[in-house]
Sequence to fold (156 residues):
Amino acid sequence: MDITIKKREAIKAVGVRWQGTFQQAQAGEIKDIMQQFRMRLAELPDTINKESIFGVSYDIDDKGFTYYLCCEVNEENTVLEDMVEVNVPALTYASYQHKPEEDVSESYTAVYNWIKEKGYQLNDQINLEHLEIYPSDYHPINERPRLTINIPVKPL
Fold:
């Protein structure tokens, strides 16, 4: 697996918020919300890049997590009434380009194992768990996942 360390600048994004359990996510709720968000990309003013949709996971615990689907926007962007602003700080990530023929959970497991093997640790100073980057033409209902997995890390 070609896992690398990448530094990403801070991101200001606008999108939709989902909160639920892992069971709800596995049942397809996030896929449905992603498809709905994709259909609304044209409504987002002042996007920097509509070619990528960010999936940002926060506050993971035993009960579930919060997930944002969003696109990066200019600093002066106005947030649409039924959307939210998401600010992702500049961070260093273990990054892996997941391929559609692979199993997503196995890819995540491999990245977490790589982090330990290479002498990194999870960045526990923030509550951001994952930053996924999907191509905007990815159809979550009809296709196997195409994404870049990014997990915040820091050196030991």
Q: What stands out?
A: The longest strand covers residues 11-20. The chain has a mean pLDDT of 91. Residues 104-117 form the longest helix (14 residues).
